[in-house]
């Protein structure tokens, strides 16, 4: 007998065996038992969650010789024929390859009017229904709206939003859920027991994580791991090598190297993974998933998904606290951009190395409290500038008892760069930002820099631009980092403001409005005559 893949061999044969979709199976079984069958069903959900299997189970329950019954016998000729895909009255149509109006007319519309040849119901299962063309949907609409009594439609899709509303409104909709890691792990253990194999719990846990909620993907990955394993024993390292996954320990080490700004260590870890055959895109995706988990650890301090063991999760919590959520969010965003570039690049590894070196070389900026907008120059210097210190004297000259005449007298330290240079550097950076992010860059056009020691104010030209960056903490943090990088002041305290809060270069007051004199009597008549180009107005007698 030919070998059968695990996901086909262990496909659910009745509603009891369908795992993780109790809300669907209970509703369908009650509807069958009560005789409240709909003429069209729409099954929605991610891939590998049991949509097509449920459609076949429903067909078996309706056409079983003992039915319609919520518990098909699985032994009669109709149950066996549907299970093997040989029932002439159960038509499975793949909309991904049969998309045109002619396919729909030939396969469904012209045949639906005829009664079933052998079974009780003629059932049409249309998989990936969202791939049908607009004309095909239009042709199918009337038949789905008022089908013959012996016809039932079951539509399955992974992209519900692409199904026209006219079709959706005529179907009963069922949403299929992703499987949890715990449920998928139990299912994998059951399959291994029936196959006579053994695996460490941590290994099955990794396979369930890689499946991302898909029952079919989990069985496909398990089959690959079984083929790679030796002596029928599956270990976590077997899973890592068979599926090309990055070890959690490697992701932890690389994140630590980025936090320590150890670029050499980053490249060493990347080189080791490339020698093992890891794809750069997979590497980037794994980093994103790891940083996503770290953000969850920083915010929730508990693993709600059950994806990590307690020891690993504790280490991730500690690493998340050292990194901080804002930095992880910035890394996540930059690596997502790198992933987009890698998909279109002929050298994805070079793109990955470039972005990792940027992250490892970014300046270490201590978190600064946000100071309130100053009302005058003196409060700004007192609140934001460090304590003034006199200039260092020459070695042969004793230190003066009072500050030198050239020292600042307003309480602020000497500026590292002059305002004109700062604004020139900032305008150059703005033009670069326009190319990278057109929306944010356009808001920054016309902005200016104000310096007061180590305190920097970025004055926005409009309140709309100010609110755009204030709306999300990530945008504001990235903008402040851009200001520091442009000015070469990594430790500067940056504050965002808009022009109505500016304290320098106030626009000149508008000229006073001169009210026209009020004219009466002869003066009014003279003004009218002048306005009429000297034409006199004759008085009525």
Word description of this protein:
- Strand 8 and strand 9 (455-460) form a beta hairpin.
- The strands form 3 sheets. The protein has a 5-stranded parallel sheet, sandwiched between helices. The protein has a 3-stranded mixed sheet with strand order 8-9-10, sandwiched between helices. Strands 6-7 form a two-stranded parallel ribbon.
- It has helices at 6-9, 22-34, 51-63, 77-84, 101-112, 134-145, 165-168, 181-195, 201-211, 215-228, 236-243, 248-259, 263-275, 280-300, 310-323, 325-344, 348-361, 377-384, 419-436, 438-444, 463-470, 473-487, 521-531; strands at 40-44, 90-94, 122-127, 151-157, 172-175, 198-199, 233-234, 448-452, 455-460, 493-498.
- It is built from 23 helices and 10 strands.
- It is an alpha/beta fold.
- Helix 9 crosses helix 10, helix 9 packs parallel to helix 11 and helix 12 (248-259) runs antiparallel to helix 13.
- Helix content is 51%, strand content 9%.
- It has 4 domains: 6-175, Rossmann fold, CATH 3.40.50.300; 181-243, Helicase, Ruva Protein, domain 3, CATH 1.10.8.60; 248-361, Zinc Finger, Delta Prime, domain 3 (Up-down Bundle), CATH 1.20.272; 419-501, GMP Synthetase, Chain A, domain 3, CATH 3.30.300.180.
Task: Supply the key terms.
541 residues; alpha/beta; Rossmann fold; Helicase, Ruva Protein, domain 3; Zinc Finger, Delta Prime, domain 3; 4 domains; three-stranded mixed beta sheet; 23 helices; 10 strands; disordered C terminus
């Amino acid at each position: 007998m030919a070998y059968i893949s695990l996901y086909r061999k262990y496909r659910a044969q009745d509603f009891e065996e369908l795992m993780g979709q109790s809300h669907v199976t209970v509703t369908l079984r009650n509807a069958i038992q009560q005789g409240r069958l709909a003429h069209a069903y729409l099954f929605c959900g991610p891939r590998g969650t049991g949509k097509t299997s449920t459609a076949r189970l429903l067909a078996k329950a309706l056409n079983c010789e003992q039915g319609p019954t919520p518990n098909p016998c699985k032994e009669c000729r109709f149950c066996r024929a549907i299970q093997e895909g040989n029932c002439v009255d159960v038509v499975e149509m793949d909309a991904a390859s049969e998309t045109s109006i002619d396919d729909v007319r030939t396969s469904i519309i012209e045949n639906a009017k005829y009664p079933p040849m052998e079974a009780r119901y003629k059932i049409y299962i249309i998989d990936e229904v969202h791939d049908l063309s607009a004309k095909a949907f239009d042709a199918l609409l009337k038949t789905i709206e008022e089908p013959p009594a012996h016809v039932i439609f079951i539509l399955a899709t992974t992209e519900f939003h692409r199904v026209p509303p006219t079709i959706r409104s005529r179907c009963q909709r069922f949403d299929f859920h992703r499987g949890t890691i715990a449920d998928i792990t139990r299912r994998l253990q059951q399959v291994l027991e029936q196959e006579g194999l053994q695996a460490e719990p941590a290994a099955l846990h990794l396979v369930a994580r890689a499946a991302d909620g898909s029952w079919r993907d989990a069985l496909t990955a398990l089959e690959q791991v079984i083929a790679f394993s030796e002596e029928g024993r599956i270990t976590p390292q077997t899973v890592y090598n068979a599926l090309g996954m990055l070890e959690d320990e490697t992701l932890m080490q690389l994140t630590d190297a980025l936090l320590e700004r150890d670029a050499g260590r980053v490249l060493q870890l990347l080189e080791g993974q490339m020698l093992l055959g890891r794809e750069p895109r997979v590497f980037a995706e794994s980093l994103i998933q790891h940083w996503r988990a770290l953000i969850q650890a920083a915010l929730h301090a508990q693993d709600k998904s059950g994806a990590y063991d307690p020891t690993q999760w504790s280490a991730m919590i500690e690493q998340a606290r050292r990194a901080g959520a804002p930095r992880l969010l910035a890394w996540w965003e930059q690596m997502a951009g790198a992933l987009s570039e890698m998909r279109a690049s002929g050298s994805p590894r070079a793109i990955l190395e470039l972005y990792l070196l940027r992250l490892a070389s970014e300046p270490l900026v201590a978190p600064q409290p946000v100071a309130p907008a100053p009302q005058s120059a003196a409060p700004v210097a007192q609140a934001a500038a460090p304590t003034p210190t006199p200039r260092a004297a020459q070695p042969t000259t004793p230190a003066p008892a009072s500050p030198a005449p050239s020292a600042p007298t307003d309480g602020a330290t000497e500026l590292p760069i002059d305002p004109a240079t700062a604004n020139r550097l900032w305008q150059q950076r703005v033009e670069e930002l326009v190319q990278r992010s057109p929306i944010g860059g356009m808001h920054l056009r016309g902005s200016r820099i104000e310096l007061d020691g180590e305190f920097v104010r970025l004055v926005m030209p409009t309140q709309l631009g100010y609110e755009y960056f204030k709306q999300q903490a990530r945008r504001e943090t990235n903008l402040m980092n851009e200001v520091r990088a442009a000015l070469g002041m990594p430790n500067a305290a940056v504050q965002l403001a808009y022009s109505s809060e500016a304290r320098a270069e106030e626009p000149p007051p508008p000229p006073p409005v001169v009210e026209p004199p009020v004219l009466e009597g002869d003066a009014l008549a003279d003004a009218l005559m002048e306005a009429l180009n000297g034409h006199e107005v004759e008085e009525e007698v």
